Amino acid sequence: EAQVTQNPRYLITVTGKKLTVTCSQNMNHEYMSWYRQDPGLGLRQIYYSMNVEVTDKGDVPEGYKVSRKEKRNFPLILESPSPNQTSLYFCASRRTSGGAGELFFGEGSRLTVL
Amino acid sequence: AQTVTQSQPEMSVQEAETVTLSCTYDTSESDYYLFWYKQPPSRQMILVIRQEAYKQQNATENRFSVNFQKAAKSFSLKISDSQLGDAAMYFCAYTTDSWGKLQFGAGTQVVVTP
User: Of all residues in chain A, what percent carry a pLDDT higher than 90?
Assistant: First the structure.
């Protein structure tokens, strides 16, 4: 089954404690991206990657890091989480041929930073 | 600056009736892609419909159809014969190409009453 898998689905942590949200896709997509969803703001892009070792900032990259060492994996790293990073996070991927096709999303990770 | 605007925070519809969600966007591009995504309480992001700007014909998917007005930069979604399972948050989204970020509106919550 084609899917994007992210973990953990729920996480409560404290300010300053480093955490990583993993993301993996099995569709051989070149393009991967992280979004955060906040009420009234929709989804905003944090970082994206066009391929292995190629990453770039989205609209709200502050406080986040990413890496793309393998095509299928695109982890999101919060080096020193703060309460304003409490949000719902989505990893997504899509093919890059044939125009802009469907962006496939993971099931979301609800993060609470105390 | 907000590229995609959804002016209706919430819409209510009775079962079997029709509801139309509005979406406007701002762009200077001539080629681009527009999407409607559905987010039920499970939080999963589900593609409802996709429209390519160079296609004049409005996209349809079963009970879902769009009214794409390129000159007016408008992309409304019509849900016909509404069902309880249609209750969800609906997001309008825009991108220029397969490498571009998907820019989302703030969302419209659809409530379906029996």
Answer: 87
